[in-house]
Amino acid sequence: MSAQADAVVVGAGPNGLVAAIALGDAGWDVVVVEANDEVGGAVRSAEVTRPGFVTDLFSAFYPLAAASPVIRGLHLEEHGLRWRSAPHPLAHALDDGRAAVLRSRVDDTAAGLEASAPGDGQAWIEMFEHWQRVRDPLLDALFTPLPPVTSTARLLSRLGAAGTLDLARLAVSPVRRMARERFSGDLPALLLTGNAMHSDISPDGAGSALFGWLLAMLAQDVGFPVPAGGAGELAAAMRERAEHVGVQFRTGSPVVGIDVSRGRAVGVRLGDGSRVGVRRAVLADVPAPSLYRDLVGEALLPARLRADLDRFQWDSATIKLNWALDRPVPWANEGVRGAGTVHLGVDVDGFVDFAADLAVGRAPARPFLLFGQMTVSDPSRSPAGTESAWAYSHVPREIDWSGATLEQQVERMESSVERVAPGFRDLVSARYVQSPSDLERVDRSLVGGAINAGTSGLHQQLVFRPTPGLGRPETFVSGLYLAGASAHPGGGVHGACGWNAARAALWGHGRGCTVKRVLNKTVWSRLLRMP
After folding, report:
1. Rounded CA gap, 76 and 510, in Å?
2. What's the number of CA atoms in the CB half-sphere (13 Å) around residue 297?
């Protein structure tokens, strides 16, 4: 059986869904092909612990989605999406009973930091005021294709040359250094470093400051919201939005190959033997190595690209635990009880030890955990008086996380929670463990349990993402675009990778089509050393 469409989107993760919506809005005939039976990729939820307890299987909190001009522009509230938030976005619980709490109001956050170390409260307020000045042009710069000429010009106009250089320095600084320069106490450093560790960059690594600052400021600005009813409701709203403009979906249909003829993508082959031909473009919401090696095929790859893929670095693997709790978490520090996201397991110096374990391939004895209190954030997630909770921790990719090795790390993770919430284990009525291989089995884009489709290190960002080139969604195959998180700007539910790919595809078939094709061929020929 063969079908035909203007465009095929491979993969119905958030980036693929955004790409399909953008093309559908432009009047294209679009087919989305997804290997799983439901859409969403790493934005899905289910009752896997006990009936009535909704678990977000992968991602759970969505500050990037709430702030993203791409997601906001879809008006998903008109398609059933409702956001919910905990009283406080974030806390970091320490073993000694103290806690850093990022509260919904910046003045309240500052008051807590000031009580711990005089001067830190005002420094936090000044950091947030600076964020408010740069927020809009900065997010535009992060979420648009390279080079971001217009948004960079807006940043310059707001900050001036000196202010822009200060921001550039922050972008390449280690978060540990930034915290020392700006604060005297350890509580702000906990908030900033914990957010930086959502990526796979060491707290002493260049660029970690940007991640920590960005997520901490988003938490202070838009919070860490969750979709009412579960993460799957966000994906469902995006699917409805896509279907509203005529996008068609074929779920339970893995793509096994992309057909290329005379250097152009002309269709996709499905696992059931059928084919969908394309008149204009294929947009792939899959990791870059999967796209090039598995779907395009090694035989067609230029030698330079094969060499670059050999150097491609994945981010760390992930272990995720999900619990049904009979009662709310008994945190030792009262301030943590109202936080949707809780960081725990390490102090400021412990972050460095944890990162060192990951770097050398050693199972972390003191893991850093990201803990989600989902019922605190959205009361519909479990019966009244209970809690649907989860925690995840990064682990080295080099280790086989199964059997006794997995059990030992699960024990370490639960012990970390018990230290800051005595009696936690007694409340667990059901537990569901997701190892790195479990994550990949359910979502093939989470290769080896990597959740960001490639390292966030500076050596694989911007024009180096996913391989050295232009940092754009175009590939060496005409009409084929990388729309997944391996593309700039990387991981997170913001939709920018899919939006950028759709824009590139639309421009490739618009007024600039002929000029674009000539330039694209010339640039790729040089970069990939093609004949």
Report:
1. 27
2. 11
Ordered DSSP codes for 239-296: HHHHHHTT-EEE-S--EEEEEEETTEEEEEEETTS-EEEEEEEEEE-S-HHIIIIIII
Q: Which one-letter amino acid corresponds to residue 491?
A: G
Residue 369: its H or E element: strand 369-373
DSSP one-letter code for 381? G
Measured distance between the N- and C-terminal CA atoms of the chain, rounded to whole angstroms: 36
pLDDT at 205 over 60: yes
Q: Over the Cα atoms of the chain, what is R_g?
A: 23
pLDDT single digits (tens) 101-139: 999 999 999 999 999 999 999 999 999 999 999 999 999
Report the alpha-carbon distance of residue 191 to residue 91 in Å, rounded: 7
How long, in residues, is the chain? 531
Summarize pLDDT for 443-455 with one digit per residue, the tens. Answer: 999 999 999 999 9
Handedness of CA 372, 373, 374, 377 (dihedral sign): negative
Both structure tokens of 530 = 């093609």
Half-sphere exposure of 173 (CA within 13 A, CB side): 21
Q: For residues 256 and 66, what is the distance between their CA atoms, to the nearest angstrom?
A: 34
Q: How big is the CA angle at 250 (ends 258 and 513), to the nearest 5 degrees?
A: 50
Q: Does residue 192 contact residue 213 with C-beta atoms inside 8 Å?
A: yes
Q: Coil, strand or helix: which one is 479?
A: coil
Domains of the chain: 2-37+251-312+452-528 (3.50.50.60), 84-226+314-442 (3.90.660)
